[in-house]
User: Which sequence fits this backbone?
């Protein structure tokens, strides 16, 4: 079964489907072990965790694909990827979709911001015309060919144009081949309910912290017709706070004793990465032959 098919199975099995962000392989393994049926790689997570950059469209397709490859090598949980604006022209969008498929991604979302994009919860976003966005989605849909790759259209139109224009864009993207709609930075449960009631494909709600969208629960969103609930950077933000506090305490105290209760133990860490099985195989292997013999 392909990655896209696995994601579609997960979407059918869990309503709404909870989609947590995983910034690297070890976090993907921990999320898998927690029971999540699908995972998400955030463009902001790639920019910040892998390159120390803000989410302003500065990372490349190859850099995103490298993080995709690292994750899909160690988990078979389907992975949805933030593909920003598709990384360029129609030819670039085609290459984006093909590279993501080849490297094991289950799907992606492409947005309607201009190339110099911003975080969806920041001011001064600029979006392309509806027809240009629909063309991006049509290009991406053609590029996947017969693959089950799951294509999500993200629109940032709500902040500039309101809900009705957002719905118009959503319908144009569905006609162009989108499998789901990701309306960014909606501000109420009623907005999600209206949108979900007027389109024919699943709606994704991005429940990111410290943004424009309230922290609605999965139960509330499911009741409003939302089918996918995204938590793109929740765990990453927790890791950052823990790292900041841990470094400060270590610098001040000169010991990690007071930090032990906040750590994953060595044994639990080994369980995640299956350390003992690797060690068993190493111990069972015959000793290397002396090349000089």
Assistant:
């Amino acid at each position: 079964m392909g990655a896209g098919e696995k994601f579609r199975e997960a979407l059918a099995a869990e309503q709404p489907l909870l989609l947590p962000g995983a910034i690297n392989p070890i976090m993907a393994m921990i999320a898998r072990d927690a029971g999540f049926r699908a995972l998400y790689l955030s463009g902001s997570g790639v920019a910040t965790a892998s390159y120390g950059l803000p989410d302003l469209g500065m990372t490349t397709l190859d850099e995103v694909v490298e993080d995709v490859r690292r994750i899909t090598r160690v988990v078979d949980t389907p992975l949805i990827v933030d593909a920003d604006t598709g990384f360029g022209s129609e030819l670039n969008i085609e290459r984006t979709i093909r590279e993501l498929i080849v490297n094991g991604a289950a799907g992606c979302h492409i947005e309607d911001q201009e190339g110099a994009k911003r975080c969806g919860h920041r001011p001064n976003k600029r979006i392309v015309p509806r027809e240009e966005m629909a063309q991006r989605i049509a290009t991406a849909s053609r590029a996947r060919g017969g693959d089950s790759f799951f294509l999500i259209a993200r629109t940032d139109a709500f902040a500039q144009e309101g809900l009705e224009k957002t719905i118009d864009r959503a319908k144009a993207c569905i006609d162009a081949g989108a499998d789901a709609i990701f309306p960014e930075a909606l501000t109420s449960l009623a907005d999600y309910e209206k949108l979900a009631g007027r389109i024919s494909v699943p709606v994704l709600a991005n429940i990111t912290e410290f943004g424009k969208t309230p922290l609605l629960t999965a139960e509330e969103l499911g009741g409003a017709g939302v089918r996918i609930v995204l938590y793109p950077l929740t765990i990453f933000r927790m890791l950052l706070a823990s790292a900041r506090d841990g470094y400060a305490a270590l610098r001040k105290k000169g010991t990690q004793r007071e930090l032990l209760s906040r750590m994953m133990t060595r044994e639990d860490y080994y369980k995640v990465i299956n350390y003992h099985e690797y060690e068993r195989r190493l111990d069972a292997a015959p000793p290397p032959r002396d090349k000089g013999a």
Notes: The chain has a mean pLDDT of 95. The beta strands are 17-20, 39-41, 79-82, 107-111, 150-155, 180-183, 204-206, 228-231. DSSP finds twelve helices and eight strands in the chain.
